[in-house]
Amino acid sequence: MKKLIPLIFALACAACLPPAKTPPPPPIKTAAPARLTPEQAKKVEQLYYKAVGAYSRNDMTAANAHLKEILVLNPYHKPALELREKIRLATGRN
Fold first, then answer.
1. Do 73 and 36 contact (CB within 8 A), yes or no?
2. Looking at per-residue confidence, does 1 or 70 come out higher?
3. Which of 4, 33, 63, 93 is the most buried (most CB within 10 A)?
4. Can you give the residue range of the structural domain that contains 70?
5. In this predicted model, which residue has the larger pLDDT, 1 or 75?
6. Could you give the dihedral angle defined by the CA atoms of residues 83, 86, 92 and 94, in that order, rounded to the nearest 10 degrees?
7. How many CB atoms lie within 10 A of CB 77?
8. What value, to the nearest 5°, has the Cα angle with vertex 56 and ends 52 and 94?
9. Is the residue at 14 inside a domain?
10. Tens digits of residue pLDDT in 8-55
11. How many helices, marked H, and strands, marked E, lie in the chain?
12. Is residue 17 a part of any domain in this protein?
């Protein structure tokens, strides 16, 4: 019994302490948008619509091919990145 009293006291004291602080997550790095020529911007737009069309026809191979072309021109194209993630989740590929 005498050995339990210090243990109970320690547990009671520990319950009163605030939780340990975890360091904040590192800031998210945002890259500058890619600077495309008007021709490249038009091509990216066309490829994106082709990718969406292929996705809606359930042709994931073609959609991925169009998205890869987009991301070569503009690796930060948010709609293409989002569609690529949707395809990844739908197909179960990593």
1. yes
2. 70
3. 63
4. 34-89
5. 75
6. 50
7. 21
8. 75
9. no
10. 777 676 667 677 777 777 776 666 666 899 999 999 999 999 999 999
11. 4, 0
12. no
Token pair 């590192």 is found at: 26
CB neighbours of residue 56 within 10 Å: 9
The answer to pTM > 0.70 is: no
Instruction: Write phi, then psi, for 24 (nearest 5 degrees).
Output: -65, 155
Instruction: Report pLDDT for 1.
Output: 64
Distance of CA 16 to the CA centre of its chain: 38
Type of residue numbered 34: A
Q: Determine, yes or no, domain membership for 9.
A: no
Q: Quote the pLDDT of residue 41.
A: 94
CA 7, 13, 16, 18 torsion-angle sign: negative
Could you give the CA distance from residue 40 to residue 56 in angstroms, rounded to a whole number? 24
Cβ neighbours of residue 91 closer than 8 Å, sequence gap 6 or more: 60
- Number of independent structural domains in the chain: 1
Question: Distance between CA atoms of 93 and 19, rounded to whole angstroms?
Answer: 39
Compute how many other C-beta atoms are within 10 angstroms of the C-beta atom of residue 61: 9
